[in-house]
Amino acid sequence: MQEHKLMLIDGKAIALEIGERIQGEIAAGSLDLTLLVVQVGNNPASTSFIKMKRAFAERVGIKVALEQLPESVSTGELVRLIEKANTDKKISGIIVQLPLPANINTREVLDAIAPVKDPDLLSSESQARFAAGESEILPPVVAAISQIFDNYQVAIDLANIAIVGYGQLVGQPVGKWLQNMGIDFALITSENENPEAILSKADIIISGVGKPGLIKPNMIKDEVVLIDAGTSEAGGVMKGDADPRCAEVASLMTPVPGGVGPVAVAKLFENLLALSLSGETAQ
Fold it and tell me: At what angle do helices 44-60 and 260-282 cross, to 10 degrees?
């Protein structure tokens, strides 16, 4: 019987490499970049994501300005705050930490971000450019997955690919990215009657549901490449969509935490740098 070999993807190591590259470019160009982070309320998962972003920014020499607002803030107040930041020359990019409370119109808030200051690609205008294949940057999670595939030499053009979940941060942008490259994939949502039939045939699974232990080892085939971009918090611990026992079956797998997350954070700041450089050229 052949011994099972698993390679766990080291997202922190990839993020460090990207960070060194960003740091070098910032130093070489004597750039002064500031990312505005807008947080509403005090969601613990959001706070922990912001902490990760701040730590990375500090390491590479980018400033982070945090605007933390109470849950009682209105959509209009948030839009005005973003519109002001759009015209502030000291602010290089703006991100809104999601999810926002139910009383706020999230789409209206995200659409207020000027594309030149939208490193998350969450405004409708940025998303339309990306969907049309006209964006010079990729959404951070997509860019992270692309980088992981490059680093670990995963060939995706002829693989059976399954995307689990169709949310706006993982499933939708990953699907658009594959479509833009002419690569077919199967999509699994809560409406699929038999998701196991699709999962069991997949060579590559990309999941972003945010439901702990959703993917079980008996659902996937041997040597599968499992990219787990689903994050949820259970009792103060970050968990992914894949049951940890999937490691006994997969050939390549992203742990949660420490897999896609750190790379996506690094890619956010790489996008910020790219936008600020293209903004300078455009001026």
Answer: 60
In this predicted model, what pLDDT tens digit does every residue of 101-152 receive, in sequence order? 999 999 999 999 999 999 999 999 999 999 999 999 999 999 999 999 999 9
pLDDT in tens, 235-274: 778 899 999 999 999 999 999 999 999 999 999 999 999 9
DSSP element (H, E) containing 65 = strand 63-69
Residue 166 among known ligand-binding residues: yes
Q: Binding residue per annotation — 87?
A: no
Residue 47 counted as an annotated binding residue: no
Determine whether domain 139-260 maps to CATH 3.40.50.300: no
**Residue 145 · residue 137 · CB < 8 Å:** no
Q: Residue 202 region, left (φ>0) first, then alpha (ψ -120 to 50), else beta?
A: beta
Residue 162 backbone dihedrals phi, psi, to 5 degrees? -120, 130
CATH of domain 29-116: 3.40.50.10860
Pairwise CA distance, residues 207 & 242, whole Å: 8
Q: For the packed helices 11-28 and 260-282, what is the interaxial angle rounded to 10 degrees? A: 20
Domain segments of the chain as ranges: 29-116, 139-260
